[in-house]
């Protein structure tokens, strides 16, 4: 069983400016493996995928160092400037660093949600993602609901690339708004090379008053669009703690998935992540 999406950081106000800029005081401290491991144990999770939270190669190397020292960090989704002229050299250097540090680099991500409209339409960026694929790495798509049509065009242009939609595309759960999100989600669901993370939902809902009933229509719509075999469970810890503890994010998904077959639950809580990121088997990884 795998937590397919979480973060670590050594907090520094200048380096993680998005925390202070958004008034997220509860996140303004260091979160490391020693903080997460007991939470994984409490939910019988064998390992996790650590995802970048700062857009630097330095952070990507630091996450690979953490994975080297903690084998239950099964994969690292790092960052590189995918539109840079020297991208190939940067990626080769990062892949080589990973090989020297337990070979846990499994993907790359860019925080597209913070970019201007049209970012994913840039051919230079798309070519950068193709370079990611040439190294057998996955790319995580992080967008807001308003950017979902752009994400559809982007994913359609990269049919041979393993792509993962983070946080089901960040619909406006707190407003109960599905109109501008649902159509593009269904289009993405028709693309076999795209999988989706059931993560980050509680923080798109009302932090103080969300209920399972608020989230289930969005989970149901994602299931309908992608089917049970292309869904993966993630906590988005520690960001999730703004709205719910780590255990509650998994309790929500476990309750929702109770009608699934055994094989469908196994995929949701590990198998899909293993396939999407070409992970080592999680069993016995502690």
Question: Which labels suit this protein?
Answer:
286 residues, alpha/beta, eight-stranded parallel β-sheet, 10 helices, disordered C terminus
Describe this structure in words.
The structure is a single chain. The chain has 286 residues and is α/β, with parallel strands linked by helices. It is built from ten helices and eight strands. The protein has helices at 17-21, 33-42, 57-69, 87-100, 123-134, 148-156, 179-189, 212-226, 246-256, 262-277, and strands at residues 2-6, 47-51, 73-78, 105-110, 138-141, 163-165, 194-198, 231-233. Strands 1-2-3-4-5-6-7-8 form an eight-stranded parallel beta sheet. Strand 2 (47-51), helix 3 (57-69) and strand 3 form a beta-alpha-beta unit. Helix 6 (148-156) runs parallel beside helix 7 and helix 7 packs parallel to helix 8 (212-226). The longest helix has 16 residues, at 262-277. Residues 281-286 have low confidence and may be disordered.
Q: Structural class of the secondary elements? A: alpha/beta
Number of helices: 10
Order of helices and strands: EHHEHEHEHEHEHEHEHH
Q: Which regions contain 5 or more consecutive residues with pLDDT less than 50?
A: 281-286
Shape label: globular
Give the CA-CA distance, first to last residue.
Answer: 11 Å
Please provide the count of β strands: 8
Strand order in the sheet with the most strands:
1-2-3-4-5-6-7-8
The fraction of residues in strands falls at 5-15%
Mean pLDDT comes to: 95
Helix content: 40-55%
Radius of gyration: 17 Å
How many strands, what sense, and barrel or not for the largest sheet?
A: 8 strands, parallel
